[in-house]
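OP here, attaching both records as promised.
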Amino acid sequence: MAIKATIHKAQLQLADMDRNVYADIAVTIARHPSENDERMMVRVLALALGWPADTSQGTLEFAKDMWEPDEPALWHKNFSDEIMHWVEVGQPDDKRLMKASGRARRVSLFAFQSSTPVWWSGIATKLTRANNLHIWQIPHEQSQALAKLAQRTMQLQITVQDGTVWVNDGSESLEITPQRLMGED
């Protein structure tokens, strides 16, 4: 018998002063049996950082990337089913990123593993044609600290200012400084 997903619920209070995006976001996260807390929490962080300023054409939502190979970790589809924003986490290969670049208006990737510099040095030159691709590295120590905030039910305040992200769960606060590897906003 297959192991089922573990359900997590999060209430996010987002204050992104860099983009003037303020939102209360309630999400249900289906955590794949092979997914760890670190990857799940990077997906939550990616949701907050990619939340659209204008939600009249839909919002960013969790997709089935670990169940369906043709889906990302998150995506924003408008009401015509056009992919507005495709979001990956981890270290996908260049073919996956180039395919996503052709399918979506915007593609973002949040890499968080300690091996990201080695992975990036081997893939960077293969992605130069993708003008809609934005790649960020979350420092590994910071993504591990973020993983420690994982609970089955979470209330997180996420504040973004001057490129720095603060995540607070009511008892602990941490600072995350995403580093841009590729793409301009």
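Record two, same layout:
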Amino acid sequence: MNKQSIQIALAYMSVVIGGGFASGQEVLQFFTGYGLIGIVGTLVSGVLFAFLGMQIARMSSQMQANSHKEVLYRLFGSRIGLLVDVVLSFFLYGVGVVMLAGSGSIFTQEYNLPPLFGGVLMTVLVIATLCLNVKRIINLISAVMPFLLAMVLLITTYSIFSYNASVEALDAAARENNETVTGNWFVGALLYASFNIAVGFPMLAVIGGMTKQPRAAAVGGVLGGLGLGALILLLNIGLFANINQLQGIEMPALALSGRISPILSVVMSIALVCMIYSTAVGMFFAFSARFAKPDTRRFKLVSAATVCVGLVLSLGGFSKLVGTVYPLLGYVGFALILAIAFSWLRSRSAAKAQQAGLNAIS
């Protein structure tokens, strides 16, 4: 394991963590709402995160890809790849909008400020960051990850050991009082992994392409995927243990921190803003890069315009946007998963055929 592997793992996790489970609302709808069986769902998603992260990072490194479009074209061909790219870009923009809405919800729930305040603040931060060059953006996103991990681990660990109801009662409360994205926990787990892979794919492809060692890139993808799986599992258990006290709350993770300490709640709100910020930057970067080359004046103008439009769209509300955009993006992500799995099987078959040929010659 080297520095590049660790950087890839941290960047992979930081891009996904803001959109995937920082607020707790996502985990609530995809896992906790199914009750105890939702814990198994987190394990399914964790395995998929590791496998898919490894394949994307390695493929990008082998290609020395400059953008996710190159990887999409390799997976799907030029025509279908273009279609997938357009659809994916549209939904990634939707995730960026959700992040702006999430920022508004944080400042409303924690500080009783209008949602527009948090949205405008995040808009300014994202636009300012997108005016930096690509390497600085990646370094900035990677740098905030250790702080975010520490906060999530602290909150969830305390919550797991402070539950005050029987497991049976919590299971019943989770199933009866919470909306889920689909009627089946396994489909929910697949959707969760697929939409998060779609979210992390553009940035992971760019980072992998900047790495000249495919093996190091693959290790980074695996580490990031396993780290995400572990965090999702912990957060899901923490939410489940306190599900009877989290009804109707848009930011469950923030509510859990408030039960520990008012000061910790403030610190957690800052951490959540950082998580959402890291994902918002990744999403708007990927979308803007679809229309302009990064590090150019045109890119900065496109970024500013798209983020401002996103601010207006974010006024639709955080929970509603999560329940609408994420499942739809999950179905788009299924196409990515199938294409990556097919590419992996094809490469394994080619490697076996080559080895068999070498054995026959010798």
